[in-house]
Amino acid sequence: MAAGAGCVVDTRRALECRNGEAAAHLKFVSIFIIFFTSVIGVSLPVVLARYLQGKPSYDKATLIIKCFAAGVILSTSLVHVLPDAFDALSDCQVASKHPWRDFPFAGLVTLIGALLALLVDITASAHVEHGHGHGHNNNDNKESKNYMLVGTQEEIEGIKKGNYELGKLETGHGERTNRETDQEELIKLKQKLVSQVLEIGIIFHSVIIGVTMGMSQNQCTIRPLVAALAFHQIFEGMGLGGCIAQAGFNFGTVAYMCFMFSVTTPMGIVLGMIVFSVTGYDDSNPNALIMEGLLGGLSSGILIYMGLVDLIAVDFFHNKLMSSRSWLKKASFIALALGSTSMSILALWA
Fold first, then answer.
1. Which residues contact 77 (CB under 8 A, 6 or more apart)?
2. Which of 42, 86, 166, 267 is 20 to 30 A removed from 261 (C-alpha atoms)?
């Protein structure tokens, strides 16, 4: 055992496990395994939603998938990402120095991540609603300019009088229909925005995982981590895929978002290997731990906000389909609990 600056390290164990060649081999294997499991995880909900599209159970199925996804996302942020951020900044090599020992920076950066997600949400929602309303006003003005009554004064008065009652009925029905259509379009736009911001938060997390593994030279740590991360990516992919499936993107956008999620962790591993070969920093280096803690806290804040506000609260309190069917609300809660539980169990290994 070696002690220094308040840190205690099992030197013999560390030397036995430190094998750069064996670690590099495991990392190359993990790149392909993690890529394929990520593709499977993120594609499953999307393929299932496409299969059910047009069927009576489509809306209910996508809602339940999304609730399972929300549970996975919430568990990812609270059980995986946030504790890792605190652990990185609490490491003795970091916590023994100023300013890291004087303030809980992991919590602060998590707060900043949540506030940034809120700011993006408010700004983008306001922009979407303003643009949508402005477009409809322009259409209304154009329509009003396209029509002009022609004839004598008596004929014009007769036409106006005859159409008055019909106009009242049509106006009431038309306004209600337009309002419902506008609301549906705004909900779809909001779902697309949520999926995109959610992917940004998940990509932060995936990069951190990949870079940490890529920098590590400890084969004893990497070997069990490969299998654990494979399952981790499946469930996290299902979480993101569930949100993408409900957002109604076109095929090209869906394929792009699924591909970006699938390659982020493997790219992170390659980046970590490059960083180690250039700088000699491994995953226990203080600078690497600080970066891991700060990016992890930021990612956690984004995911906590998105999970609670844009996924769970929207569906359980503002979804008409769920409000009208009590059994669907119970099924959605069970899906939420299953998603949270399955992802939380994985914290035993990764």
1. 299, 300, 303, 304, 307
2. 86
Residue 65 tokens, joined: 């998938």
Tokens of 12: 């013999």
Residues forming a β-bridge with 2 = 9
Q: Which two structure tokens, joined as six digits, stand for 147? A: 């029509």
Query: Could you report the per-residue pLDDT of 95-118, keeping only the tens digit for each?
Result: 888 889 889 999 999 999 999 989
Closest alpha carbon to 101 in 109, 110, 89: 89
In single-letter form, the type of residue at position 285 comes to N
For residues 318-347, average pLDDT: 88
Contact yes or no for 273/217 (Cβ under 8 A): no
Angle at 255 between CA 252 and CA 258, to 5 degrees: 150
**Residue 337 pLDDT exceeds 90:** yes
Three-state SS sequence of 77-129: HHHHHHHHHHHHHHCHHHHCCCCCCCCCHHHHHHHHHHHHHHHHHHHHHHHHH
3 — pLDDT class (breaks 50, 70, 90): very low
Q: Is the peptide bond before 224 cis (omega within 30 degrees of 0)?
A: no
* 281 secondary structure, DSSP code: -
Q: Does 196 score more than 80 pLDDT?
A: yes
Pairwise CA distance, residues 36 & 322, whole Å: 34
Task: Reduce the DSSP state of residue 325 to 3 states and report it.
Answer: coil
CA separation, residue 129 to residues 48, 121, 191, 317 (Å): 31, 12, 13, 21
Sign of the CA dihedral with 80 first, then 83, 88, and 92 last: negative
Model pLDDT for residues 247-260, shown as the tens digit of each residue: 878 889 999 999 99
Full-model pTM: 0.73
* Dist. CA 252–CA 216, nearest whole Å: 36
Q: How far apart are CA 257 and CA 235, in angstroms?
A: 16
All residues at 6 or more sequence positions from 254 whose CB lies less than 8 Å from its CB, including other chains: 46, 244
- Contact (Cβ atoms closer than 8 angstroms) between residue 222 and residue 213: yes
